[in-house]
């Protein structure tokens, strides 16, 4: 035993280096997931927070309740709505911008790279304030521009269906920057000789795009798809700051539902159960992606 | 049409498309800046003026005199400082995983990577309960601790530091340098590029941090800019000029920093090997 401690002391440096990070991650990531699992089977609420003896074990009741909760079912529908429309839109837009930006390397292209990245580094509250003003039904810029074409006022955030699209527009605007940089890094990694060889064979510009560029971006596209999909399944900030889930729960997402149940209603057990449903959806979506990629490689 | 002329036309079209797209992307920013200098009456005019007729700085002055943006700014800067502290924790861990052989290395590393897959919503409530149990709600420590270290950052530091030659470290050890001396005096300067990228990202992340301050802070004296801005939006709902000035105050510094250090961020993505 003494030998073991002597050994540990001699090799203490790597442990000293990793201790702060490992300790913080255990306390704020590993331990919480265990706690979340336990409380998802209890009726823990604000009372339970003060006095643990009032917490009761309720089995699968929270999970059963979730799937009869009309708002939760609506939040699942809304989340899939966001994902199905938003994810392809983000991927297409960021790939498009990256392809355009890859045309040149002069100052102007670098400037535009910065401009397209700007929304990605903008604070979400500032985004909400600015876009709330743009979407304002009476004084907003968008409705003013539409009025120039004699189009009636659009209820950007007041109509349950239009509000979903308004949030998607905002999220796409914010989501292009990061993915564009990933695509751009991948594009710049493609050897020039591939294109030269294709030119010798007489390939036209669009042929080079379809037969060389797009296939070689397969890994970047896979990475962007996975991360964007996971991000959009957790769609939270946009409805949280723009609409608080309204009107008529028309924009509430699963993640927002969890937040509202947890921090507004202090229904911790119920919210934790909701968060595990979301976790399982994310895992399933990721597995499907990996499965599709496998068949893609064999092809 | 010769090949050269054709290429030139394509490039012109591409540039034009980029300019139009760029303007569309930038409209919210342009509108924010322009509106922040308009007097209240002018902002609600229909049709709206594009360039302010009467430029005013009153909204920016109000942020500090009527509202507490001075305090919010101080708190945000505290978050930024601790964001850098967190970056050094990430770097130290990344260095240990890259350059030391020790028992449990793989296990610890996989444990760290595994935390990347846990969605924020799952840990949000338990982390709040843990902080509550530790008596850290409504304190600066409670705001800072949950996001101090990040697995992805540790991973990127490790990736970069494996490329530093081990001989260099061995030589310093033979000269009798201590491990911490080696880390701060040798490793940090050599790993400057990754520190530049992570430093900018740490700055942006801390500056924009919003959810934890909102959950943890009850006292306005603990609010950073982001939460302060949300308060402003709620309490001065129709004073768009004030809101736009507050937003500009949050957004413009980040944009300036980003344009200065743009090169490093783009290099960072190339470095992470996403090809």
Automatic annotation (TrEMBL), chain A:
Gene Ontology cellular-component terms listed: plasma membrane
Entry similarity comment: Belongs to the binding-protein-dependent transport system permease family.
Cellular location(s): Cell membrane
Higher taxonomy: Bacteria, Bacillati, Bacillota, Bacilli, Bacillales
Entry keyword annotation includes Cell membrane: yes
Gene Ontology terms: biological process: transmembrane transport
Protein name, entry field: Sugar ABC transporter permease
Membrane topology, from the record: Multi-pass membrane protein
Pfam families for this protein: BPD_transp_1
InterPro entries assigned to the protein according to its UniProt record, in alphabetical order: ABC_transporter_permease, MetI-like, MetI-like_sf
Signal peptide: none
Alphabetized SUPFAM superfamilies for the sequence: MalF N-terminal region-like, MetI-like
Residues that span the membrane, as ranges: 21-42, 80-103, 115-134, 165-188, 209-233, 268-290
Keywords: Cell membrane, Membrane, Transmembrane, Transmembrane helix, Transport
Record-annotated ABC transmembrane type-1 domain positions: 76-289
Gene3D superfamilies (alphabetical): MetI-like (1.10.3720.10)
From TrEMBL, chain B:
Transmembrane annotation, as ranges: 12-34, 77-97, 109-131, 143-161, 240-261
Cellular component terms (Gene Ontology): plasma membrane
UniProt-annotated location(s): Cell membrane
SUPFAM superfamilies, per the entry: MetI-like
Annotated ABC transmembrane type-1 domain residues: 72-261
Its membrane topology: Multi-pass membrane protein
Family: Belongs to the binding-protein-dependent transport system permease family.
Protein name in the entry: Sugar ABC transporter permease
